From TrEMBL:
The keyword Cytoplasm does not apply. This is HTH gntR-type domain-containing protein. The keyword Transcription applies. It comes from alpha proteobacterium IMCC14465. Keywords: DNA-binding, Transcription, Transcription regulation.
Length: 239
């Protein structure tokens, strides 16, 4: 088996086990089945299994205890901003688990993004500010759910990218994931109001950090009632 095939099978094994963990099929505190059982179940070699578990360990999902086995970690050890974990959480979330997941995402975005907007208003270069303004115009004239999602995600991402603080970069994938969930599973597009987005652009263009902070907070607060009154197409078709 060549190196590409080994890596691919390792990634698939890590994804399969990771999804079982975030779905709760392998609950917190549980010891994983022994190597032989897992290899037979997944159809992989022990080498691939051990590498997959190493990957999951680096993400905080599992821990190896000598002579006891490999255990599923408490959720407070999970690397929640890891792109794979975010993907697995959203891919495996059932309708009943989507709302609390989105609420948690909005909570952390409220804690982080208003501050990022304030920093961008203070620090962004002229070309950065112009780009943010251009992205707002794209959002303003977007006329489909897909184009609106892409435009709003790009608008917020540009604000996060131009606050000149590298620690905000790890948050950007969460913001994009949250946008996708909002447009896919709520009526965000139908109720999208752009007055706060416009106020944020104005504050950033005019170097007004506190107004930028307030405007970004208002953008995020728009989503809270939409989440709680969401209409999931899957729910409607099931009914």
């Amino acid at each position: 088996m060549d190196k590409v095939s080994v890596k691919r099978r390792t990634d698939i094994a890590a994804e399969t086990i990771g999804k079982q963990i975030v779905r709760g099929k392998l609950p917190v505190g549980q010891v994983l089945p022994n190597d032989q059982v897992m290899c037979e179940t997944l159809g992989i070699s022990r080498t691939i299994l051990r590498e997959a578990l190493r990957i999951l360990g680096a993400k905080g999902l599992v821990r190896a205890v000598p002579k006891a086995g490999t255990f599923v970690n408490d959720t407070d050890r999970w690397a929640m901003l890891d792109k794979d974990i975010l993907s697995w959480l959203t891919d495996t979330a059932t309708s009943g688990r989507l709302e609390p997941l989105m609420v948690e995402m909005i909570d952390i975005r409220l804690a982080i993004e208003p501050g990022a907007a304030a920093l961008t208003a203070s620090r962004a270069q002229a070309t950065d500010r112009q780009r943010i303004s251009e992205l707002f115009q794209t959002l303003k004239y977007a006329n489909t759910p897909t184009s609106s999602y892409e435009a709003e995600a790009a608008f917020v991402d540009c604000i996060l990218a131009n606050c000149y603080n590298r620690f905000f970069n790890s948050h950007r994938i969460l913001a994009k994931t949250c946008h996708k969930l909002l447009f896919d599973h709520t009526e965000r597009y139908k109720y999208l109001s752009l007055s706060s987005h416009e106020a944020a652009v104005r504050a950033i263009m005019n170097h007004e950090p506190q107004n930028a902070r307030r405007s970004m907070q208002a953008i995020l607060l728009q989503a809270s009632p939409i989440i709680r009154n969401k209409k999931n197409p899957a729910d409607e078709s099931a009914g």
